[in-house]
Structures
1.
Amino acid sequence: MKFLRRFIVLATISAAFAFPAQAQFTLAELHSSMVGSWLARIEGESRTRTLIITAVSQTGTGGFVAVGTYGFSDDKLYPLKAPEILQSGKDVQLKFLTGADSLVIVNSNADGTFVGTIKYVNAQPKGIKFEKSVVAAASASTTGPAQSGSATGAALDRSLIKLVLLNPNGFDVASDCGNRSGRSHLTFKEENGKIKIDIDNFSYGNCTSEAKLTNSGAAFDGCRDTGIAISFDANNKEIPFKGRSARCSYDFKARLTK
């Protein structure tokens, strides 16, 4: 009988090690599924909010954080405070503080939405639901979503372009100039209201430049090429920008890590 009990215990331990917990999402999978614009609806409120996640990064301790902004869909968006991404198997939880220090905690659903609560300062939690959209430019008025090209739509489009462009990890850029191809690493950063570019052409040397935002992307001069215009594609998470000049074409692949 003792032998049988010992066998059952050993078999149970062996089974536990033979069937590990369900694998969690990788950094690339989290980046692919979470980066983009999300429309938020709050219980009992008609005015919608917009969440724009521009990147998912991994911390030195192995955790994950989101980079992005949040606010009223028809107003200015503010950077997320203390954003965290927690995982339990294939369940994902997003947690952050808004610009007004409201606490948002939402969990992933099988239908691709995030549902949870928002707690305003000194108030009871309210239900909140996030649904992904290409550009979450809906307003709370009865006129419906802002159309691209309208004042509100254009402002949000540029806001999204700028946030994606300022990826702190930069971009791996592949160039095709007909009989010559190349690669470089570009990092865009905002300094004194201007967008500066650090360009590393590897064996061809380094330089700095300045970019100007456009309604479709940005324009700048490179180290060896001028008049480069890049266009933003919100549906392409891997290569969000593609560009052209008089001589070359460019693909900008977003880096997930430094």
2.
Amino acid sequence: MYRNFHLLSQQSHWYSDPQWWAIVTALFLGLLGMFQGWIRELIFKPNIQPVESKITSQYIGTQHYLYYRFIIKNSRKGLFSWLPWFRIQAKGARVLLTYRNPPDNFIPIPLNWTHFNSLERNIPPDEEVYIDILRQKTGDDNYEFCWPGVMGSTDPDLKYLNSQAGDIRLEFFDQNQSIGDIHLKFDKLQGFKYVPDGSKII
């Protein structure tokens, strides 16, 4: 079919020839198939951005806790992000916590979405949502990671914050891809401070 393409293009009315359009369509669909992943990410990728830290007080039964939370936002990102219908929801979003200098055998910890008590949640475009990162029981010096739901660990490295391991990094994923990471410094009085160059830390 393609051997006649050069001759067809030289015809005075080549644009009205169905065979020429069949060739163009085949080429277009072929290129679309090759680059569909890149096109999807360029146009449709959610993007998690930091907003601010929050410290809240809460009772569970008779026990008092301080919760150290962080607010993030699903910001628009991509070539057509200024168009309202290209604002993309992060579906099945998950957040994992790791350290700048993790201890040996440390595994990334899944964190809890505030008020959802779950591993995953959808984040609509331009919506701010809360993450439970740490909690501290009154009278206890330890800061406990906020695992989602009934998940958890008895390993001290996976249960409590280790300040000797350095700052923390939150990594975000939806059902298809990574959608951002945030580097945070912890302060027991002010909560978490966002560090803008966090994406450079591995």
3.
Amino acid sequence: MSDYRTNNLDVKKFIDMLVGIGSNQSINCKFNRHTAMEIIHSQEFGNMVSVMDIEKMYLLIKGVCEFEKYPDMQFGSTTRIKYLINNLQKDFSYHKLIDWLFANRKNPYIPYGYDIPLSVKSEAEYYTYEQQREEHRINMRNLDQQRHTEALERKRKNMEEHIARHKSKEEWESLKRDAVDQEEDAEN
């Protein structure tokens, strides 16, 4: 049994273990989340996977996704999958892999590195979800603009009413002064 609880880790062995997980091999290991994250985010890890053949890369990506299902092994927004898939050509196999990642993930930051609800189970559902989010943003922006326009209209109307009240009041006061003046003139 491998012990991945210490810092004395062989990055190649760790990558091989992840590839094994990606190819559905049973792995009997103990893990320390901190050490696993240290390895997967290391320069050495990045260097090794940058020269990896495409088939092994697909298995590695699946292995990381499966690895993140282990208790306390979820990397959250720091998942490396988003970086690993950037090395792939966007062909049929790529889209199949993305669908697989959506269907098998436990980390909402897989595959693209930002929070996507776990209820989204395929790339097509993701695009539908994003389209609905964009429509919601547009609707909210339009609603906000409508409320702003209505508020400006209420303000304009209130100002007009205010001016009209004061104008009427001024006219009334003027009429009262004229009437008092006329009474005074009549008395004299």
4.
Amino acid sequence: MATLFDCEIDIHLVYEPPMQDSDFGIVLTRGFQLPFAPCKGLFLHNSEWDELADGQGVELTNVVWDMNRCVFLLQATYGNVDFPVACIPEEIRSWLGRGWEWGSYMDQYDGGDSSDDPKRKRVGQYEDITAGIDSDVVERLHTIPRNERPTAFNVFFDALIRQMAVVSCSSEIAYAMDKAGRYLGHGRVEATDENAGLLWYQYQKEYCDMGIVDRLKWQDKVSRYPTLESVVLGRSKKQSNARAGAK
């Protein structure tokens, strides 16, 4: 009988725009087994993991053998270029529906005890932020002024800003999104404002010229925005019942 190696993999979902290809992205995780020891550069494909039908799979960018837990810790990145920003929550939920979990294998090591499995939140009821909106409008929701967009999308947009500001490499883009209330950068769908490009440049330069104290103040402000996890996972059944009872 072949030896099976326990593996835990983090996949970094990068949506460009608004993120950059070098971004940390949104991290999902899962465990599985392999009949051989994995190595950096190996491509893994599983039709139950993602929606790719070409069999190319995802490339392992980092491989660590945890000698204490006897498990391989793996990392991979999955890039999505010109994916509709408004559809990101539903797309992530489709990954969760295929067995992935929100979080990282690094959660296992929080607190110094890696023997206990971290508690993962379950997928709850989600308010579709694209419901009832024409597909062409959905494509450009992130470029539309904030006061012309559905509240549910604005909540997600704030959560995305927080995610990018706190855990990513795109803080200057997140700052520009926060200042403008929308995305004014490059992409397949762009804002049509005559001065959009100039404003986008000015906002990013403003961030780059800020001192560390002002940057920390801004990060503290956006840290009060909803978390992307709470927006994507939605409300639990208990929370939904409590909300319904309060009406």
